[in-house]
Design brief:
349 residues, mainly alpha, 65% helix, flat, disordered N terminus
């Protein structure tokens, strides 16, 4: 009876297992997981999605922490760490590759296109400055031509125009000359701002003073030329025979004045040239002193070539200032050598 009773008794229903589901961190879809081994860190369960539990009910998703998806599905967290460390190393290498002295003086590394873009912008600023001064100078061309023609008009003669368009071209040339002469400091400034980052901080003062001195000497040469032009014009006109009349073309006279002024202005840059050569080490004060007599002969020959006359007075007005500039160049060269030796001694200490 007891056996029948126990046999006929109904078995208790099996206990329902709580369905544990997991969520795929990449697809965010719920999935089922049995009582399998514990999941390893960094890996997700590979159970299928949309399965039902043994009880026939959908399994509830188990909340999981969000996992950051790597850039590539095949990369593991260790690969990501290696890649990030490599990127940081490359960036640090690029920063250390730049010269610290260059950073201190503001020399920012730039590509060729960036250098060309900066050069274009500074060139356009210089060109625009010269153009604006030239436009303004064209409206004052009468005054400019009167100043340029004064050395010739002081002789009592007049200049002549032989072509219909020469009057317009004369005004245009005078305005262009004014634009270049008055806008030249702006051109030098823009050029300085372009090349100054490449100059060492210790040499910038020397370069800045050299540029200022070069501008001063250039305009000094132009001024001296303007005061020597009347003597040169009178000397040249004195060679005209008495039975001939001087019919000087105004355009040719303007070209002569421009060439003469720029030639003297360039010659007056002699001290700057000597100073740069001494700084480089090509020229020494002893060399300049030993070659003084040859330099004097060359100066007088150069004055005879530059001045259009054989008048001794005109040549003296050009040669004497050049001889004075040569002596100033020797003094500057001695000063540069002493300064260089003083720096070397300070560096050794």
């Amino acid at each position: 009876m007891s056996k029948k009773k126990s046999a006929g008794a109904e078995k208790p229903p099996p206990k329902k297992r709580s369905a544990k589901t997991s969520v795929d961190p990449y697809s965010q879809k719920p999935g089922t997981s049995g009582k399998g081994p514990a999941r390893k860190s960094g890996r997700t369960a590979k159970d299928g999605t949309g399965k039902k539990s043994k009880s026939g009910k959908d399994s509830a998703p188990r909340p999981v922490k969000t996992v950051k998806k790597p850039a590539h599905r095949g990369e593991s967290p260790s690969d990501l760490t290696k890649r990030d460390s490599a990127a940081v190393a490359v960036q640090a290498g690029e920063e250390t590759a730049i010269d610290p002295d260059a950073r201190a003086r503001g020399d920012i590394p730039m590509s060729l296109v960036s250098h060309l873009d900066e050069f274009r912008s500074r060139f356009l600023v210089s060109l625009l400055t010269v153009f604006i001064i030239m436009v303004v100078g064209f409206f004052f061309s009468d005054y400019l031509l009167a100043v340029i023609n004064r050395p010739y008009l002081s002789t009592g003669l007049k200049l002549n125009v032989f072509n219909l368009i020469d009057g317009f071209l004369l005004r245009l040339k005078a305005a262009m000359l004014a634009g270049v002469l008055l806008g030249f400091p702006v051109i030098v400034y823009e050029l300085w701002k372009y090349i100054s980052p490449a100059i060492a901080v210790g040499d910038r003062m020397f370069a800045r003073l050299s540029v200022i001195a070069a501008l001063f000497l250039f305009y000094l040469g132009l001024t001296l030329t303007y005061f020597t032009l009347p003597f040169a014009v009178k000397a040249l006109l004195s060679f005209t025979p008495d039975d001939m009349t001087n019919l000087i073309n105004a355009a040719q006279y303007l070209n002569f004045v421009m060439l003469f002024c720029f030639a003297i202005g360039a010659v007056f840059e002699l001290p700057i040239v000597i100073m740069i050569l001494t700084r480089i080490g090509i020229v020494t004060p002893s060399f300049l002193v030993s070659k003084r007599k040859y330099a004097i002969v060359l100066i007088w020959v150069l004055a005879a070539i530059i001045t259009p006359t054989v008048d001794p007075l005109t040549q003296s007005l050009v040669a004497l200032p050049l001889m004075l500039l040569y002596e100033i160049s020797i003094i500057i060269s001695k000063f540069m050598v002493k300064r260089k030796k003083r720096r070397e001694l300070a560096g050794r200490v």
